Amino acid sequence: MLAATALLGGCATAADEAKRQAASDRELAEALEGYTPGRTLDCIDPTFAGGPQLVGDSLLYRPSRGTLYRNVVAPNCPGFRGDQVVVAELYGSRICRNDRFRLVQRGGGGIPSAYCRFGPFVEYKKDR
């Protein structure tokens, strides 16, 4: 009986993760609706980047009305959720691929996450 309960618990976790991933995918699709992907960049200028907004496995920066940058965070970023704030460590004047950041709870409190790394930045332009 105990073994069956453990198996059911594992199934529920996988089902919950699948639901969470599907919701993240929908949220990202909605955020990118009306935009077309363009070039991939290693760095962006944070002074014009605005944001970021955490959506799914991505960070979205909106420097202007018709442009946004999607950063697909490097794998294994723990606790990546939309209710957190990104605290980046800059090594120069730009945010670049492989720069590190941590996530902290909005409003203070809590312990910062382990370090995460930025991935490449994909530029998206608003469809005309």
Overview of the structural elements:
The protein is an alpha+beta fold and 128 residues long. The chain has one domain. Helix content is 24%, strand content 36%. The strands form 3 sheets. A 5-stranded antiparallel sheet has the order 1-10-5-4-3. A 3-stranded antiparallel sheet has the order 6-8-9, with no helix packed on it. The protein has a two-stranded antiparallel sheet with strand order 2-7. Strand 4 and strand 5 form a beta hairpin. It starts with a helix and ends with a strand. The relative contact order is 0.20.
In short:
The chain has one helix spanning 2-32, and strands at residues 35-41, 43-44, 53-55, 58-64, 67-72, 84-88, 95-96, 100-105, 116-117, 121-126. It is of the alpha+beta class.
Annotation keywords:
single chain; alpha+beta; five-stranded antiparallel sheet; 1 helix; 10 strands; 36% strand
Note the overall shape: globular
Tally of helical runs: 1
Give the termini distance in whole angstroms: 60 Å
Mean of the pLDDT scores?
83
Strand count: 10
Quaternary structure classification: single chain
- How helix-rich are the residues, as a percent range? 10-25%
SSE order, one letter for each helix or strand: HEEEEEEEEEE
Pick out the low-confidence regions: 4-8
In angstroms, what is the radius of gyration?
17 Å
Topology:
Elements: H1 2-32, E1 35-41, E2 43-44, E3 53-55, E4 58-64, E5 67-72, E6 84-88, E7 95-96, E8 100-105, E9 116-117, E10 121-126
Antiparallel strand pairs: 1-10, 2-7, 3-4, 4-5, 5-10, 6-8, 8-9
